[in-house]
Specification:
The chain has about 140 residues and is α+β, with helices and mostly antiparallel strands. Helices cover about 55% and strands about 15% of the residues. It contains four helices and four strands; from the N terminus they run H-H-E-E-H-E-E-H. The strands form two sheets. Strands 1-2 form a two-stranded antiparallel ribbon. A two-stranded antiparallel ribbon has the order 3-4. Strand 1 and strand 2 form a beta hairpin.
Length: about 140
């Protein structure tokens, strides 16, 4: 009788170890997916800057002048327990004119149409997470 109980405990302990490992794998996969999503989102923001016609210089096929806005785009992924957060945009280096280009506005009497690069980056992040099999809102 005691041998049967020992076997049961060994099976239970083995299943528990598999569950713990599976939980770790899911968290690691989620972090990897968010990292891939952040990179894809960052690249999309830069693509929009590179391909959205200038409102300030007619005929100019991008929003690059000094490339500062483009080069300032970055991303980050943080993991805190069960929560994994990914962000893209101008996280460290921010200039007021970035937001004028992003959201639109008025510069010296000229209307700047919004480029909506951050929204496009977010959409790209969500597409990447969906490809990984995660549900998105």
């Amino acid at each position: 009788m005691a041998g049967g109980l020992t076997g049961y405990q060994n099976i239970r302990d083995g299943l528990f170890a598999q569950l713990v490992q599976a939980e770790k794998n899911v968290k690691d996969d989620a972090q990897e997916a968010m990292l891939e999503a952040a990179i894809a989102g960052e690249e999309m923001v830069k693509h929009i800057i590179n391909t959205t016609e200038s409102s300030l210089s007619p005929g100019k096929d991008n929003r690059n002048w000094t490339f500062h806005m483009n080069q300032a785009v970055d991303s980050e992924v943080k993991r805190n327990g069960n929560t994994i957060t990914g962000r893209i945009g101008w996280l460290k280096d921010q200039e007021f004119y970035f937001l004028i280009q992003e959201d639109g506005g008025d510069v010296n009497g000229k209307t700047v149409t919004p480029m909506n690069a951050l929204m496009a980056g977010q959409v790209e992040m969500l597409k990447t997470l969906t490809r990984w099999g995660f549900k998105t809102l």
